[in-house]
Amino acid sequence: MDADACVITPPERPVLPVVGTSQKFPVRRIYCVGRNYVAHVREMGGDEARDPPIFFQKPADSIVLDGASIPYPPMTSNYHYELELVVAIKKGGHDISPEDALDHIYGYGIGLDMTRRDLQMDLGKVGLPWEVGKAFDNSCPCGPIYPVEKVGHVLEGSIRLTVDGVAKQDSDLSLMIWKVPEIIANLSKFFTLQPGDIILTGTPAGVGPVVPGSELVGSIDKLGTLRVQISN
């Protein structure tokens, strides 16, 4: 975009590092999947039936890179982590079939769906949207993207998060209720996916609060680690 043609300076597009290259993955939209591990559904008091996946979005500029210090957000006293597999889309499409879905993936990474849990729960009780509980500033820490050509399709393996060195989430990607191809197929019925979209695929059980000074380290097999610290 030509900045001289705009009445204000256009914002920069968020980008994620790509492992093995100096090139970046530009992020267009962030889609998230809710309630995609049975144990997490149970801990949140939800129905364990295999209902259609729940989708919501975060703004692209909520991304925080690996190693950052992120401020404790305002308007909450119950700030939670949710560790998730990130899927990076290279080829768009509408109504993509599960059989074709993997062909649309550029790579995988690690993400955190940071949540103002008290606001999310209060809004949910009265049937209002989750945005202020989910889509706030700095709410999406993300690690680098690992291309499929380097790691293959990451559809199973350990997903684990520690807070100050203590394990809080410890599960396996194979336990997703909706698998990655099904997520892409379902999501693409509602939105035309585009190159640059990323999808956070849901979190396992063990979510909980953090406080200023907490250090979060997430890991997924083949995808290294994501480390962030909570500041005041």
From TrEMBL:
Keywords, sorted A to Z: Hydrolase, Metal-binding
Domain of life: Bacteria
Record field: transmembrane: none
Entry keyword annotation includes Hydrolase: yes
SUPFAM superfamilies: FAH (SSF56529)
Molecular function GO terms recorded: acetylpyruvate hydrolase activity; metal ion binding
Name of the protein: Fumarylacetoacetate hydrolase family protein
Record domain Fumarylacetoacetase-like C-terminal: where: 30-230
